[in-house]
Amino acid sequence: GAALLLPGLAFRAPSAAAALPAWASRIEKLVGTKSMSIAVADGGTFVYRHDPATARPPASVQKLLMAMPLLSSLGPSATIPTDAAGTLRSDGSVGNLWIVGEGDPRTGPGPMRVLAQNLVDAGVTKVTGRILGDTATFSRDWWAIGWKSNFPTDEVALPTALTFRRNRLSNGTPVTDPELRAANALTTALENLGVDVVGSPSSGTAPTDLPVIASVQSKPLAILLTSILGLSDNFGAEVLGKTIAYASGVRPATISAGAGVAKTYAADLGVTISAYGSSGLSSSDRVTAAGLVALLADAEMQPWGLAFQDALPMGGEGTLVNRLTDVRVHAKTGTIDGVSALAGWVWSSTNGTWLEFAIFSQGLSKTTAVSLEDQIVRILAESA
Length: 384
Prior knowledge:
Blueprint (H helix, E strand, L loop, with lengths): L21 H10 L4 E7 L2 E6 L11 H13 L6 E5 L7 E2 L2 E5 L7 H13 L4 E2 L3 E4 L16 H4 L23 H15 L3 E2 L4 E3 L7 E6 L3 H10 L3 H14 L7 H14 L20 H12 L4 H7 L17 E8 L2 E10 L4 E10 L3 H18 L1
Parallel strand pairs: 4-6, 5-7, 6-8, 7-9
Antiparallel strand pairs: 1-2, 1-13, 3-5, 3-10, 11-12, 12-13
Helix pairs in contact: 1-11, 2-6, 2-7, 2-8, 3-5, 6-10, 7-8
């Protein structure tokens, strides 16, 4: 078929009459008649394709489709602020003090202690009102089309703008009041620094016109994504999906709005995807192998491309633990019922280049799918 064109990339389709190289024939034999889609490119030029245009569920490979617009919009060194806002009087007192998050998925007691110290450094000596966690920056939706009914508890805690301990209790139970928990933690941290807080912690909708007194920053996005992509963190992915929606000016910042940003990003590069969330948990998400490879090839040319590649786990790391430990690969795994996926970059020892690849399958056992994925990646590493 015709090669996919992207600005600045020349995707050349191999001649239909050209004989497959030996390594490609080996992959063809492995795949046989199985329900699989594979695309492989070298610097944007397809070198192998098998059913590349069938749209399939990407499972957690969907997280790559969230990460690309996030990095494109904000950059790998960007941090996400959590602000303490209120009116600081000349005597060092504040009335109500609001904590306003913008989607740092890793807020907890440590960041609240840092924020408390920053408030003291800014001159806060007493809170005459109370400390409140803002609940309104992101929508509090907790569902996406294609999710199973247990996903909002088992797989994803409530994705909020102000998070606290990944929005779960120590026993794993999800909580619906992380903003109140953050307010409790900041109250304790301030009191430990000698700041008197008169009122009890609470939560609600923060006024929009309050000045920021102090802030605490998340880790840089590249570091957040290394953890989220490496461990396939569904909660972190859905929080960052809302973050990119919010940063893009989309209101309300919902799970579907984050997926919408990913759709727009891909469409601007000529790739059509169906996206309902950022984690890949939706069985209704769809992308083609050729489309994903095109997006990876474009990402490779961007200023943030290397940071993106480095954020993906290597063989033996994260969700690739016990897999491809002897191969130079950066790849994202994906698994939902009846679906397996692997996509990213593998180093071709033959060409001395990174190959972009995507492998999607449906209807295979996970054991079979993983075995095929690893065999294909090894063939690409050794022979392609």
